[in-house]
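Exercise 7. Given the components listed, write out the predicted structure of the assembled complex. Treat all entries as one system.
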Amino acid sequence: MRRTLLRPLAIISAVAGFALVATSPVETARRPRYGGTLRVEIGASVATPDPATAASTAEESAAKEQIDGLICAGRNPDGTFAGAPGDGAFRVAAWEPGKHARLVANDDCRTGRPFVDSIEIQMGRSARDLLLDLELNKTDFAEISPEQARVAAQRGVRVSRSRPDELLALVFPGAAGDRKNDLRAREAIAGAVDRAAIVNFILQKEGQPAGGLLPQWSSGTAFLFSTASDPHGAKELWSQIAPSPRWVLGYDSADPLEKLIAERVVVNARESGISLQLKAIAGGAPDGNVNIRLIRLRMASPEPRAALAKSLEALAPMAGLDAEPLPAPASPQDIYDRERAALDGFRIVPLVWLPQVYGLSARVRDWTAPAAGETWPLADLWLEEEAAQ
Amino acid sequence: MRALADKIAAKLPAHSALVLEANNISSLTDSDLRGLRQALQSELAHRGFRLASSSSAGLKLHVTLSESVEGYVWVAEWRQKDEPQVAVLFVPRTADLADKPTKETLSLATQLIWQQPAKFLDFALLPRPAASSYSTLVVLEPGAVVFYDSGVTGWRRSRTLEIPRAKPWPRDASGRIASDGGTVVLDDVQCPLEGRTSGKVECVPLENKLTGVRIDPRIPGRDGSEIAALLENCNGGSVVLATGMGDWTQPDSIQGYLWSSAREPAAESGSPMEMAGPVISLHSSDSPDSARAVVRSLRTNNYEAYVVTATCHH
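Answer.
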């Protein structure tokens, strides 16, 4: 059943002889339909929907944030979720820790009842199972790792991508005042990385090489930061450092994409004569033996000032940089200057920008990939009637 | 370009010889690039710089027309004492920069009036008594009518009238403000605003009665679009505006049509006006040549209020 709404039609006086009308029912083709159950699968296992309970892994934390976005009324300016769980578009009807959840539409939601009646969330699904279920139409919505997007599309899965909004970068933890040799070493490692190869081969052309802390679509000035690799220059620089320091690159052991990219960085470094060791870190915890960290950081906002401020808030303490606040409002020149200053010492080395990739069933309508800083807009999508549950 | 020339002039020695190179990585067209390059050359010459044609004859000044999520970003790069120098300038997206005049009969222009992150359904500009300027902006949100007064620094919120409802508003609520700003219509109710300065308005069920003969302009291929019929007459036809047929996840456009006879479909006229997101609502206004459009920008995710003006080229 299509929703019928009242659309007023204005008076057309110029067509002689016709009087006109106040309000009349008009059915529009793109009005949503209410009803149905949205089937969602996620890789993470979320123990509890309670926003006050911390997640144990980065993956669980990210999935929990999405669920919080569905059950809480909105966000406060500091990014925390507003209201109590259940104030939002959905309420938790059933929760089997780490396995399954059932959310039902909140009829009293301040921003309007969601279009779907309920959401069934299956947790702890492997990447392979997620893809298979999308292919077999056993699920309506799942997040896909960027490097799998091409395969998914080739297998007939409907794929949706956000703008590249997640930064993958090397961070060199440490104090601000360091030795000249350390600066050279960081510059050499930064020059050795082949970002284009990471995008083309590991990410299967999903994403963009990153030179700055903001993507081109957000700041308009990312093209000013070089993303070219310089293996010869890196080799030359490294040869000037004697004795060569021992560098250990740490990555999140639960993140297969981080592992692939960390291994690629090690290969690139070796080609420039730089010896890097890899270390998998459980839960992303700090590790005193690691002097380079591979990190993933999502933009907090599409707006360049807000996004840069939040990114520096997270990165500066880790990299031992001064986190002086940006002026408000900040001009593009201010933003560019601050980005340049943060990157000048090679304590942060941007590698690639990743998009968020989603697999959708054919019956999902009005899906828009969430912008940076937003959670899944599942309350706004609706399901085609033909295949409704 | 004057502001960019000022920035460059502030950093370069006076009377330097410059070799200007320009490229465009924004959504502006090549003809925009040529025009802006000429304007910059002229501004630099006006400030005493000499424009040379070969790089051996002067300092290479590279200008890039780029674009951010918020607007255009123009960047000038040069080297001074072997150090790279960068000047960055923000330029808001404006209709007169991006929109080209057309020789076709009807041309459309948009003016951004208001934007906010929260959803709104319609807006109205109320004129200052006995003056040509607008003094009040009325924004209809689901559940509230918000009034803004014009001030030196822009619109300032002056009062809010709550629209009570026993149940929450539907997620796809629709509504409009009467052209005099005295009544709002929301889904199945109408709410007079007269005499209310604060608190709640009282709404009554909407009477769905036709008050005359209903004439729908027939627009081929636009069934289900938002349509606004203007009072403007152009070359013997009524001016009708219609949105595209995409859903609410896609950028939309507004196309002008001329409608001469009830027996004939309306005919497309002029180029479509591309919008930054789906057009949520399109209503004719009390001005004969303009309509009100609410757009959800896919760039910023803000809801934006536009006045869309149709100009007839006779």
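Discussion: Chain B touches chain A through 72 residues (CB under 8 Å). The longest strand of chain B covers residues 106-116.
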